Amino acid sequence: MPLIRSKFKKEKDMIYISHLDLLRLLERSLRRAGIKPEFTQGFNQHPKISFAQALSLGTASQGEYVDIEIEDDIDAEEFKSRLNKVLPDGIEFVLSKLMEGKVNALMGEVTHARYVICIELLENMDKAGVQSELDKYMRLENIFVEKKTKKGDIKQLDVKAMIRDIGILMVEDNKVYIGTVLTCGSVSNLKPELLLQTILDNTGLRFDVDDSTIQRIDIYTLRDGELVAPM
Amino acid sequence: MTERVNIEKLLKKVEKPARYIGNEVNACKKQVDENTVRFGFSFPDTYEVGMSFLGLQILYNLLNSMENVYCERVFAPAADMEKLMRENGVPLFALESRHPVKDFDFLGFTLQYELSYTNILNMLDLAGIPLLAKDRTNADPFIIVGGPCAYNVEPIADFTDIVVLGEAEEAIAEIMQSYKEWKQTGGGREEFLLQIAKSVEGVYIPSFYEVSYNDDLTISGITCTRDGVPATVSKRIIKNMDTSYYPDKIIVPFIDIVHDRIMLEVFRGCTRGCRFCQAGMVYRPIRERSMDSLKSNLKKLVDSTGYEEISLSSLSTSDYSHIEELTEYILREYAEKEKISLSLPSLRLDNFSSELAQKIQEVRKSGLTFAPEAGTQRLRDVINKGITEENLETTMKKAFTLGWKNVKLYFMIGLPTETEEDLHGIKVLAYNVIDYFREANGGKLGKHFNVTISTSSFVPKPFTPFQWEPQDGIGLLREKQRYLSERLRNKNISYKYHDTKTSFLEAVFARGDRRLGKVILDAYRKGCKFDGWEESFRFDLWEEAFKENEVSMEFYANRRREYDEILPWDHIDTGVSKQFLINENEKAKRGELTPDCRKGCAGCGVNLDIAGGLC
After folding, report:
1. Closest CA–CA distance from residue B112 to any residue of chain A (Å)
2. Distance CA B275, CA B210 (A)
């Protein structure tokens, strides 16, 4: 059956719908767009839709990916434009491509994600000051953070190796824009919220993690030392 | 110009922020100018509960189909959001525009259950609107209410400007028209209220009626105080379901709500005449939609929503004249071709066809639900639930042969004339079901077989044959629940029951009068809200509020009323005559059945005036 891989944006108010909500929205949007998806077999049939990586509630993204298997051959451009017509403001398909041959599952491929994070400092600081705090942070040999395991135990986690890249993009009044590439996926996954917690714990920067704005820019597979986007 | 409230920072800190964002598929967006009549359709509960209500979808789309009217949705924020709103000075807002509802022309509350009254007060307070109708000015919206509890709105009469009785589709359009005219004249609030009280059938303005009391606190009279306003207000009905408004699109929520599917209304009214059932009495007469109209409407709803599930929504859906044809049509056109499943709520035992259920079963495996309501034939006859033990046996056995493993049986405890024998009957039925299952499965029970017995406590409701009956006291109801839970201990049986205090308070409000207004206000001020939610229900605060106001709860819930007592809702006419209700109550005492009125008119009276020969 034809499989179409698409890249889409999730922004504005749509950052407040969960991963499951998004799945339901896509199922219903396909029906409204008159596109018939392939269904799984068995007791509880559902459309064959698979995402690359779930996005946290409240996080915007410019680079989300989804594979959708469809019943009939349909032009990828047509697929994209029909869906965009029925999707709510804030979700937009930007690229769709018919995949040929054997396709690896998106989810298994993802290793990294790039984010832009905006924090609001509670006390003003110039760019040099922020930079020196962040340099100090990156010089740390270990960056430990407490994390709850699924069993409910508290575990010390070293996130240092999970940060591939981090830097200041811009400082504007009390707003600091940080660009970063973190591990993402089933092998290793660092949530940007947790990264912010470690910055708060290990630097003199004072801010409210909940008031920060997080945007995912894209997701990648690390292949021969290069970060490669899924399409 | 009104400004949008800023909730960006709040949304990041609350559970399920999508409750507050609007922007769903099929939500209405309109340009607003000074001529726009702004209507806030308010549901006094959370988004997930309110969005599951079909009436909201109908009236929302109807109002938005009108020129110069913009209807938006308003829900009760959950506790976490409310706290942040109060801390940040964010007033109650409508989902679509995020404008404060204080600036609206109307705030319309739907009254689906009695225990939502404190939420109405909390929402008004959060909006910055005076709680008491008499304190409101031209700067405030009109508070308009409707829905089942509006038939006895007296407990919240003090907070209400306008009540619409019955089906609102036509009345609301007439009210909007009158409002536009009144707004041009620049008159006072009372002039508008007077205008619609006189000209719009189904409109009841509580402040135009005075209630006086006897020494024993029963009512001595209800007097209309304005000339030209009807002394008795009649409910409104839609005469033709095929030509009346029905939306082609409904809002599709992003988050999971209680009823997340297309709800296709098949008919209104019910012909069964169960004597405890308010809906069965007040929604008379029966009016069906034609197959053609249902088919074309369903297609539009499926196309516009993309929903994966359809349910047929009516009081007793399987009574629809063309039920087999309709379900076959849906299964053929949607289940097989489009993978859209069908669910049928409220199946009745006596005409339940297992062939039909099996067809539905092919698409979705769900449990079977039945409502015998009472444990013995004698008590089922008293309440006019025409189901026999044989019905139950045949249907269950068939269902079990077809592979069902889950059955839910609904009962009521505390029904008039109930004795231990009737409770014992519930136990007998439960164990019989186990035997039926064993019989159908070669003597084996298996791991997954389960019978759920669920009991609710009888709440006497206005406009029913049991409106004069006392409710059992809390202690007695608890005793009955204990009796059952001791006898229903079995690994294949789960027994569930409702909280008795909740049912008690519900009974107080259901048949309450205006003396309850100050109690509700005080209870709200003490912190009562979301009373229908177990985790936030504070019965102790309610008891305090009643005590301080020297109002007895038992007076309303546990007292037998005489037929000649003036009831708080005697100035409201649902079309069903009081004499019919008295006759039915007398027949109940004798255990006499009244047949389904599809099989012959029972003479309830609705056909004489309100229905005008419809049935």
Report:
1. 27
2. 31
A95 and A119 fall within a common domain: no
Strand partners, A170: A177
Q: Do A28 and B365 touch (CB under 8 A)?
A: no
Average pLDDT over residues A72-89: 95
Average pLDDT, chain B: 93
Co-location of A114 and A223 in the same domain: yes
Mean pLDDT of B196-209: 98
pLDDT at B102 over 60: yes
Torsion-angle region of B442 (φ positive above 0: left; ψ -120 to 50: alpha; else: beta): left
Is a pLDDT exceeding 80 seen at residue B352?
A: no
Q: Residues A159-212: pLDDT tens digits?
A: 999 999 999 999 998 999 999 999 999 899 999 999 999 999 999 999 999 899
Is B421 in CB contact (< 8 Å) with chain A?
no
Specify whether A223 is located in the same domain as A142: yes
Q: What is the CATH number of the domain that holds A29?
A: 3.30.70.580
Of all residues in chain A, the percent with pLDDT exceeding 70 is 100
CATH of the domain at A170: 3.30.70.3190
Q: Which residue in the set B23, B255, B308 is minimally distant from A21, CB to CB?
A: B255
User: Quick one: closest CA in B to A26, which residue?
Assistant: B306
Half-sphere exposure of B611 (CA within 13 A, CB side): 22
- CB-nearest to A88 from B24, B304, B308 is B24
Same domain, A95 and A21: yes
Strands, E assignment, B240-290: 262-265, 267-268, 287-288
Examine the pLDDT at B507 and tell me if it is beyond 80.
yes
Q: Are B171 and B236 in contact (CB under 8 A)?
A: yes
Domains along chain B? 8-234 (3.40.50.280), 262-498+575-599 (3.80.30.20)
The distance between the two most distant Cα atoms of chain B, rounded to a whole number of Å, is 79
- C-alpha to C-alpha distance for B257 and B490, rounded to whole angstroms: 33
* pLDDT for res B146: 97
Torsion of CA A203, A206, A209, A214, to 10 degrees: -80
Which of A58, A74, A108 finishes a domain? A108
| Nearest-CA distance B349 → chain A (Å) | 27
B222 backbone dihedrals φ, ψ, rounded to 5°: -125, 115
| Number of folded domains that form chain A | 2
- Point out the least confidently predicted range of A127-131, A146-150, A172-176, B175-179: A146-150
Mutation for A interface: B4, B95, B308, B340, most A CBs within 10 A: B308
Domain shared by A216 and A121, yes or no? yes
Q: Is A153 on the interface with B (CB under 8 A)?
A: no
Q: Report how far residue A190's alpha carbon sits from residue B546's, in angstroms, rounded to the nearest whole number.
A: 55
Are both A98 and A134 inside the same structural domain? no
Nearest residue to B262 via CA among B342, B375, B170, B161: B342
- If phi > 0 it is left, if psi is from -120 to 50 it is alpha, else beta; for residue A144 that is beta
Average pLDDT over residues B439-444: 88
The pLDDT-based confidence of A94 (bands split at 50, 70, 90) is very high
Domain boundary among A83, A108, A133: A108
Q: Output the pLDDT for position B6.
A: 94
pLDDT tens-digit map of B563-614: 999 999 999 999 999 999 999 999 999 999 999 998 889 999 998 888 888 8
Range of the domain at A117: 110-228
Question: Do A89 and A197 lie in a common domain?
Answer: no
Q: Name which residue leads in pLDDT, B121 or A104.
A: B121
Local structure of residue B93 (DSSP, 8 states): B
| Residues of chain B found within 8 Å of residue A18, distances taken between Cβ atoms | 18, 255
